[in-house]
Amino acid sequence: MDDDLPTDFQVIVVGTGMVESIVAAACSRIGKNVLHLDSSDHYGGLWASYNFEGLQKFIKEINSDPNRQLQVYNLIEKWYIDKDSPQEETKQETEEEKTEPPKKIWSQADFASEYRKFNIDMTPKLLFSRGPLVELLISSNIARYAEFRCVTRVLTWLNDKLNPVPCSRADVFATEAVSIVEKRMLMKMLTSIVGYNEEEMDNEFKDWTDKSFKDYLTHKGLTPNLIHYVLYAIAGGSDAMPCLEGVRECKKFLMSLGRYGNTPFLWPMYGSGELPQGFCRLCAVFGGVYCLNRPIDSVETKTGDEGKEIVVIGSKSKNLNCDHLVIGINECPKDLLSSEPSESSDISKAIFITNGTIMPSEKEPLTLLRFPPLDEGDNPVTVLEVGPATGSCPKGLFAVYFITNKVKDAESDLMKYAEKIFDMTGDQTKAGDKPTCLWSLFYNVKDVSAGVRDGVETVHVCAGPDAGLDFDRAVIQSEQIFKKICPGEEFLPRAPDPEDIVFEDDVTHGPEFRGDEGDKE
Amino acid sequence: MAKTYDYLFKLLLIGDSGVGKTSILFRFSEDAFNISFISTIGIDFKIRTIDLDGKKVKLQIWDTAGQERFRTITTAYYRGSMGIMLVYDVTNEKSFENIKNWIRNIEENASADVEKMILGNKCDLDAKRQVSKERGEQLAVEYQIKFVETSAKDSLNVEYAFYTLARDIKAKMEKKQEASNPAGARSGTHQLRDERPKPTSWLARCSVL
Ligand SMILES: Cc1cc2nc3c(=O)[nH]c(=O)nc-3n(C[C@H](O)[C@H](O)[C@H](O)COP(=O)(O)OP(=O)(O)OC[C@H]3O[C@@H](n4cnc5c(N)ncnc54)[C@H](O)[C@@H]3O)c2cc1C
Ligand SMILES: Nc1nc2c(ncn2[C@@H]2O[C@H](COP(=O)(O)OP(=O)(O)O)[C@@H](O)[C@H]2O)c(=O)[nH]1
Ligand SMILES: [Mg+2]
Questions:
Q1: Which of A180, A225, A501, B165 has the most crowded CB, counting CB atoms within 10 A?
Q2: Where is the segment annotated Disordered (chain B) (predicted)?
């Protein structure tokens, strides 16, 4: 079946991760002839979302393939609950002592039977409401392929408990966690940060270039509580965060407030894995050819007639030719990469499935929680809690993602944070204030920022997922790659609305509709 | 913007490459058919509003964009779909056998209560027929799905098919609304669009403190 695949393209894209998919869409959109391949049977690569069965398959694949362990390693999957639900008889026995627990008691078998209701993200990320991805989705009209929910609250860990972070202006007023004086101080600080343009920012902070954001906040007289909110929760930083970076992060946060909801963030329905697919769809609508399950064996560059460089890709004993190859770093033959500049730090991640939210609220919450480092040498930890309304999990459950820069390994880096907010005993009958963790997965991901060997101008390597909260790096990199392939062309101009496409009259009109049975009442 | 319809249904076309999905969509939305059809002109979905029992029903019908060709339908394609036309080509045995595979694909990816209908297309090509009408009917009975043979070329039963699918969705929806409160599961989601530029709320009201 694969072999009616044409062999000559202007652009071949290998891998369907975020960067690859954006580049594919952008090239196809301006009329390039694009082939988009992936070696696996689904879209997204390490950016994919899986249902529970797909996730099990992913874990098996990683564990059985040493090659893939170069990208994802230290996988530890754990169950905290029984294989099967208790039998009818045992249920009756316990009923004599206790009234029925209000909560469903989950078993591993329940997860299996509801596997389709899970959409678990390997690379969970948020969108800033006024960030580059939202703007790109709107300006390109790719937004019609996706839906989003607003993050409803930002929490932080302060004084050994969870605290809501006042992030909108209304929140600052409403909060009882800070005094009136502190409120004024906070408002003044944040308002001035939002107000700076680049020039003013450089000016204001010229003496702070080698100092930390924390020093700056302290200098401004903020109280420890306020410093905590601004530094850890709003800027998402650590004590060492450089001043200017902190200011920029704050500004980005504040600028995105008030567009869609009470926080600056959006979460994609059914998970981040939907987003690359939206770009792929646009690519296909403009004629891009898609072929999954199609590994590549070799990449060679050669000089064709007229001295033009062409890239030849061997795949299933077929040669595919193109002017430009765009390739995900994890699919790229090693000899094409420059000797790795290993300045990158790897990422520690964890996924937990729990039976309730970490902090009850009236409506189903969608939470961003930012932990400051708990111990010396730790990095800040980002936590995202998503519920059934996002299409991430069945009713009654929450999926909770933990992300940090790796220090030791995913489990040692993250377990102690999880223990702060979950009950890890697996006991679902207890009515404690912490939700019970039912299942968990720890894993490390290599943070790969691409670098291509010099002299190969027709091969463009795309970075894998980074540890950042948003997709900004991916958007920026894809635009850079596109500009190299198609200099002077517009990056993802608005696609017409289907309603606006008028077809030329080179079509034959068929016989009038004669009203088949039952067409009109 | 005033709403010009009572219901909006998202419908999909599914089936092997070459069975006539895009042609069916064109026949229904433009009342047109082009033999030398170029499939790469950027068709995403087409809209047609029909009248059902006095209600305006807006049908948003999505094409595969050719992504079925090498088994590459995105999971995102199925999201939020309320009805699916499963199309095979009566002159192509393989496309008929693959209907079962497509049904499995739908079960895996679409919502469990999506309405389905099977279409045996190209029934104008009787001389080349490989799949009899009876086999189509039998398959439909097996899966308890409605079935009709169509011709996008001769405009046969295409309208009937879409009206039938839309009527079934509407009936199911009205039954559901009676049973529970009508608040759809999708409330609270955002479709991003261009809105009037407004200053950030932070700056806009910062003079109060
Ligand atoms: C959604 C789907 C899932 C399938 N899953 C399986 C499976 O898990 N295991 C299995 O053994 N067989 C599966 N099949 C059937 C199997 O892929 C085909 O019977 C086989 O590929 C036929 O190969 P061929 O080269 O003879 O057909 P071809 O003549 O090359 O194919 C004819 C046409 O059928 C379509 N087609 C064929 N296979 C697929 C496919 N897999 N997805 C989408 N379109 C297709 C293409 O549009 C193609 O143009 C599936 C088919 C479909 C449609
Ligand atoms: N004779 C005949 N040909 C058809 C009919 N419908 C589609 N075709 C032809 O079948 C080919 C494939 O159609 P297309 O709509 O592109 O199929 P798709 O790949 O499923 O979208 C085209 O050459 C069409 O002209 C039909 O009802 N009768
Ligand atoms: Mg088509």
A1: B165
A2: 174-200
